[in-house]
User: Fold this.
Amino acid sequence: MKKILVTGAAGFIGFHLVNRLLTEGYDVIGLDNINDYYDTRLKYGRLELSGIKKSRIVEKRTIESDSISNYRFIKADLKDHETLNQLFDDESFTHVINLAAQAGVRYSIENPRTYIVSNIVGFANILEACRHHKIKHLTYASSSSVYGLNENMPFSTEDNVDHPISLYAASKKSNELMAHTYSHLYGLPTTGLRFFTVYGPWGRPDMAYYLFTKAIVNNESIKVFNDGNMSRDFTYVSDIVEGILRVCKKAPTRDTSWTGKNPNPSTSRSPYAIYNIGNNSPVNLMEFISTIEKHLGLIAKKEYMPIQPGDVVSTYADVKGLENDFGYKPVTSLNQGIGEFVNWYKAYYRVG
Assistant:
């Protein structure tokens, strides 16, 4: 791993990943279009911490961090294949970690075209660039949303995921299918990582834990969907980053035992793999809320609502693949992770 491209570098997970890579001495170029899906001040704030000042950012031009000599950043969009190909020509990446995507289940119901352009066209451009520039390993973000109507618990990468219930989930499943095609046709090593409800400092403001914290602090009601009868496999961001880094360092190889008569969806005859990254410990929504309340020292006003379109009742990650192949599984408890988030939130928004 000599030079790594991280797309979505101004995003929540991308920011944390870039900082981890830099501390380990890798040469990193971050790419992000810094769109306004949520408050761009958070995105610019993340970049500032890595020495990328907002005043210096120029569209489609890489700039070097003021404080970290092995980090540069480019503001560009994955759908701009010409700029992307020029970047690959100029930089000679060995590895690519693709985290750039239009996120959000509910937003995909309101703005479906955005997901087709960002998550499918943009990913196709990444695949083409990786193919033509002989990238040694493409690691990319998928999502637990792909499990859709699957009711087998815990969710296993060997399960069928052909019944998504949101366009966001369908776009992530499409990424996995597209990656396999490139692994098969061109021998491009690809690994998809299905993230399970990532949370932590510098997170996305549209996520439930962020919305709950903001509402509780402001003495506003929180919306509790499905009357609180939901659970999620909440995964702390540093655990996600550790998983990405371990996977990125080890490209998948062809599975010689794979057979089309009994196909395992998580491997292939091609250099292709899929892994779950989750805490392997689902938490009930009401317990989740009470943990936030405890760390804030405040009680939430609750407004109980029916389940929303595109939502699933429960998620639960089977992480045997990650454990067997990398000797790793997430370890951060919800109490510790929420404590870290609440401390950051109070400091960032000057609460109290």
